[in-house]
Design a protein that fits this description.
single chain, alpha+beta, nine-stranded mixed sheet, four-stranded antiparallel sheet, 9 helices, 33% helix, binds N-hydroxy-L-asparagine
Amino acid sequence: MWAIIGTWRMALEGVKLASEILENGGDAGDGVETCIQYIEDFPYFKSVGYGGLPNENMEVELDSAYMDGTTFDFGACGAVKNVKNPISLARKLSTLDANNFLVGSGADAYARKNGFEIVNMLTDRAKIHYKNRIYEENKFKNKKELKPYLGHDTVGICALDSKNKIVAGTSTSGLFMKKAGRIGDSPVIGSGLYADSAVGAASATGLGEDLMKGCISYQIVVNMKNGMNPQDACQDAVKYLDDVLKKAKGKSGDLSVVAIDKYGNFGCATNIEGFSFVYASYNTPAQVYLTYNEAGITKYKLASQEWLDDYMNTRKAPLVKKYE
Ligand code: SD4
């Protein structure tokens, strides 16, 4: 028995690659790393790896984490520049006895010293997005709120392998136009991801500053440990955090989560419209699901072929330069 779940449609091809590994009795860690590497390398995903959107200084800074739910070992990197595959760096850091979470220049130096591939992660498309945004801000004088870039977000993967090992991983360029050095929830254990092979795993995407307020991935795993199924565990964690933030501050940022339990059952929950995810298991092919909310409860359905076609067409459509 094996299963894998990933945030957003962008996880599809990577989940298919990981499914082959898991179907052949492979390791959940290899599945998670292979899946996320593919997504990091694909240039048309604007918020993960190569092609990710830059910070306010037009520099791509990447966050990633990896957690082994059997040993509880984790590795994470924050605000790394020019590391081709942050997930591989995070996985490597998870094998050390200490120094598991490195950020900024220290993380970059570690990557260089240890032979990780270094490439310029800023693509021409990302530069156009950046310059368009600066143009709009100057033209309309409306500094936009720091928000997740609509529809193109952090990848979070949770995988269970046939030896009952559960692993979680994340990778992101974080929020478009973030301050240099800003780190979100994605590399933070308990917030962006958490794994416990005796229970399950969870991963989050959305506004890191709010996801961290609830240590939401840990909360979901604790909910499952306390007997909830993955769907109820996700729903409860999102609703609770959304409610307390609205009560305390009048608003809540985007909160979307996925989870699997040790039997390979999955769950998802969100407080936004348009969250999608990918799930595959030993008896279910990799498919994209779209969420919708009914009376405050997250439901999901299979994405239509039209939706899937439109997704890729939009990703690859030529960009108009507003600033020329
Ligand atoms: C962050 N949670 O850096 C990430 C971004 C994201 O949907 O997931 N956007 O805050």
